[in-house]
Write a structure and sequence with these properties.
Blueprint (H helix, E strand, L loop, with lengths): L8 E3 L4 E5 L5 E4 L14 H24 L7 E9 L8 E9 L6 H14 L1 H6 L5 E5 L1
Parallel strand pairs: 5-6
Antiparallel strand pairs: 1-2, 2-3, 4-5
């Protein structure tokens, strides 16, 4: 299957710089203070959280349209946790997605919307079975 779009970015490490091939993103990267860094830049976990939240929210609007429900006021917050090192010295991620749905959606409809979105979102499909992703409906 051909890609609909391909993003290209280059980074020099957690303490450095990340830039996309089109120059639209050009960021200073720094280790978070919580992990001993300066915190004077963004980090991969923040970028992943922003990407996942945006992707899930966009997918939710698509799914809502298919379901013929109004979810224009919905928003998604992603919390990405960095864990480790484990016994082998490796690190892992976890995600909590907080879907804030419009008040007019009843619980059953909201849950169906979020569950269907989780099947459509590319980030959800990429992480499924690889890292824990918990979804909280607010």
């Amino acid at each position: 299957m051909s890609a609909l779009y391909t993003a290209v970015a280059t980074a020099s490490g957690r303490d450095g710089r990340a830039i996309t091939s089109d120059g639209q993103l050009d960021l200073t990267l720094a280790m978070p203070k919580a992990t001993g860094g300066t915190g004077e830049g963004t980090n991969p976990e923040q970028l992943f959280a922003a990407g996942y939240a945006a992707c899930f929210a966009s997918a939710m609007k698509l799914v809502a349209k298919r379901m013929r429900i109004d979810a224009d006021d919905a928003s998604v917050t992603a919390e990405v946790g960095l864990h480790g090192p484990d016994v082998k010295g490796g690190f892992s991620l976890s995600v909590v997605l907080r879907a804030e749905l419009p008040a007019h959606l009843d619980g059953e409809t909201g849950r169906a919307l979020v569950e269907a979105t989780h099947q459509v979102c590319p980030y959800s499909n990429a992480t499924r079975g690889n890292i824990p992703v918990d979804i909280v409906i607010e």
